[in-house]
Amino acid sequence: MRRILASSFIGSLIEYYDFLLYATAAAIVFQDVFFAGAGAGVAAFASFGTLAAGYAARPVGGAIFGHFGDRLGRKNVLVVSMVTMGVATCLIGLLPTTAQIGFAAPVLLVLLRVVQGLAVGGEWGGAMLVGLEHAPGGRRGFAASFANMGAPAGATLATLVVSACTLLPEDDFLSWGWRIPFLLSVALVSVGLVIRLKVAETPLFQELQDTAEKRRLPLVEVLTRHPRNLALGIVAGTSVYTLAGIVTVWAVSHAVDAGADKTGVLNAKAAAAAVMIPVVIVSARLSDRVGRRPVMLAGMVAAALAAYPILWLADTGSVWGFAGAVVLGQALQGVIFGPFGAFTAELFPTRMRYTGASLTYQTASTLGAGFTPAIASALVVGGGLPLLGGVWVLAFAVAGAALLLTREGRTRDLTAIG
Q1: Segments forming the whole domain that contains residue 15
Q2: b/e map of 59-88 (b: 16 or more CB within 10 Å)?
């Protein structure tokens, strides 16, 4: 079981290192490298727009990889998703700039970002289920959280690597230094594949295969037999990613533009992601005791109350102000995120669980984090921080209402769902 959980964590860490590395680069690099000359506001919006393209591809990746994960097994699909992500990330690191090849550069950047989105769309669901479907009933939330911990751990590693590269002279960093973190993906993926290939298929999937049950397409079954669970899970999940998009992407760009030191901001972001990891563990274990919904709802209420304090801290133009904002934001995100893997898995039967959980998670990430940075930039231009704060609170109110309409899954028998 330790090897299984380690595989879930390390594989997720590597995939999210690649995927979230792009978010950091979009906040501080790509507007100067691929959208230079467009004006600061337009360049930032365009850069965040390419970021959103990857998030838009995540539900598609969840449906594609989820289909094969429900038909062929969790393990094999995870290997393919990791290789796909590694190749796309490495190619971004080798991509010529707009100054070198013109408009083709941002076009290729978007295409590679879409491939990243497809790959990570298949990663989380499989990594989460490898842990959850091996775990005893009373520890499913804890086991599923190892895939969730991979995201902040990957963000920490990616941010620290980019932060180290920002110590180069500015011209060198914008010329070639920013490429180093992307090229390092080759080494990380190689290590991840060795670990992942040693993990056995989950017993629940093997049992399903042994029954030789005739079944429809998993995607069709999710959409026709469980549309309510899918919709409510997506809306509830947007809370996590609305928070992530604002405090870990938009706020980075806003703080640097307000005068905060770039390296200090990145170090604060890395520290905040590290803080999120133990919060995820504690909230996941708590959800095994009291339920997924109470823990997630408490995080949502706290995050709504913290909206304006976080925005005020991010607007101070100091590293310490940004650090306060991002640490508080990531900690609250961890409270919601810890039980979220088990919450989504317990909405769907085994024969369509990979597809259903992946669609829930990835669509929520697209609606929440994918478009939030660009929307936040537009809201601040149109109405300032008060307007952004109001939209933030409204988003959490809607997510909380959706959560209350779902069924608690902590004590449900996974083999009896559906």
Answers
A1: 2-199+217-404
A2: bbbbbbbbbbbbbebbbebbbbbbebbbbb
CATH number at residue 233: 1.20.1250.20
- Sorted by sequence, the CB contacts under 8 Å of residue 317 that are 6+ apart come out as 255, 258, 259, 260
The answer to whether position 413 is within a domain reads no
Low-confidence ranges of the chain (pLDDT < 70): 36-42, 44, 209-215, 418
The whole-model pTM stands at: 0.83
The total domain count for the chain is 1
Q: Tell me the C-alpha distance between 119 and 124, whole Å.
A: 9
User: What pLDDT, on the 0 to 100 scale, is given for residue 357?
Assistant: 92
For residues 254 and 246, what is the distance between their CA atoms, to the nearest angstrom? 10
Please report whether residue 210 resides in a domain. no
Q: Count of CB atoms within 10 A of residue 404's CB?
A: 11
In a domain, 415, yes or no: no
CA distance 122 to 107: 24
For residue range 365-384, list pLDDT tens digits in order.
888 877 788 888 888 888 88
Type of residue found at 35? F
235 contact partners, CB below 8 Å, separation of at least 6: 364, 398, 399, 402
Domain annotation covers residue 366 = yes
